[in-house]
Design a protein that fits this description.
It is a single chain. The protein is mainly alpha-helical. The strands form 4 sheets. Strands 1-2-3 form a 3-stranded antiparallel β-sheet.
Length: 345
């Protein structure tokens, strides 16, 4: 493994040596169930208690596979656990439409209304259309089963060639690299497809971790807002695959270790706390600003529950609030991370 910069991508570069060190620390913490791992509620969303029950639904079965395919539509722009619970309510009302041979014949407007009724409102008109068209493609190209997509597949590139939405009706609407990784992750976790190396689904939480720990370095930080860059995301996927192969690590463990850390601890970091300011236009023109840090008792408590107890405390350099994702649609490097006084010597 070369221990130098793996990729230069415009204003970004990926520091392989630092990245391997950070991920080693994280994976060791995850496997040993060090804080925050193994605590109540620190878990991925696809566990049994968030899934449908009864009827024809069986863990590892045909219905389970197609439920996971549908859940992928909402692994963005909302809390994933909430999305799974809402999709379970949709399933309890219309389990038939999750089966592609049935779903291909329903009206997209009906699907959209079901989503609305169950508070799955993000992009619901498009998801209603995707639902019907993707069901038709699964039936016509893959003999009615999403699991047939993975027959003979043992690399991410192979999977992407079948799943990624492309021109002329190839792949699936709404699925690009992130959702391809997400579907693989869900199906492997449920032991429905064989295990092989694939990059984790790179979402806000994983981006926050690699920027905060400076696995991804910036040549300049004059503009603290970073929009997602396809070349950088491709380089990150290559970096993660390199790490997984070199360390012979489990891709699902790596995904969980990164995602759960950001979701559980980074959101509690006082430096990431934000308040929104409505600048008019029906709430569409909004900006966010940092909540000033005075190290009040409540801020010190939040710090102790997050950064001070984090396995990456010595590696993490930046405050990156989730508010930047909702307002600017990217990553915001707000400020260098501070340490609470009297807690460090």
């Amino acid at each position: 493994m070369p221990l130098e910069v793996l990729h230069d991508v415009g204003r970004f570069r990926i520091n392989t040596e630092r990245g391997f060190r950070v991920l080693d620390i994280l994976m060791n913490a995850f496997r040993s169930k060090a804080y925050p791992y193994g605590r109540e509620g620190v878990e991925p969303p696809q566990l049994e208690h968030n899934l449908p029950r009864g009827g024809d639904f069986q863990l590892g079965g045909f219905e389970h596979a197609h439920f996971l395919f549908a859940a992928c539509y909402y692994m963005r722009n909302m809390d994933s656990r909430v999305a799974f619970q809402a999709m379970t309510r949709v399933y309890s009302q219309r389990p038939d439409i999750f089966i592609p041979s049935n779903g291909q014949h329903v009206e997209p407007r009906m699907v959209t209304q079901l989503l609305l009724d169950n508070r799955l409102t993000y992009d619901m008109e498009n998801v209603g259309r995707y639902w019907v068209e993707n069901a038709r493609r699964i039936v016509e190209v893959w003999d009615g089963s999403v699991l047939n997509l993975f027959q003979g597949v043992d690399t991410f590139a192979n999977a992407l060639s079948r799943i990624q939405n492309r021109k002329q009706g190839r792949g699936f609407l709404g699925f690009q690299e992130k959702m391809t990784s997400m579907l693989i992750y869900f199906l492997m976790h449920a032991d429905m497809i064989p295990r092989w190396i694939f990059p984790p689904p790179i979402d806000f939480h994983i981006n926050r971790l690699v920027f905060a720990t400076e696995i991804v370095e910036l040549r300049d930080t004059d503009d603290g807002t970073i929009t997602y860059n396809r070349k950088l995301l491709a380089a990150l996927r290559e970096f993660f695959e390199l790490y997984l192969k070199d360390r012979r690590a489990c891709p699902m463990e790596l995904a969980d270790a990164m995602w759960l850390l950001s979701r559980t601890l980074c959101k509690k970091n006082p430096g990431n706390a934000s308040r929104f300011i409505d600048q008019g236009n029906g709430g569409r023109d909004r900006r966010h600003e940092a909540v000033p840090i005075s190290w009040s008792p409540s801020q010190v408590t939040r710090y102790k529950q997050s950064c001070w107890s984090c396995p990456l405390e010595r590696e993490c350099k930046w405050n990156i609030p989730a508010a930047g994702r909702y307002v600017q649609g990217g990553i915001t490097l707000r400020s260098r991370r501070e340490r609470a006084p009297l807690l460090h010597f």
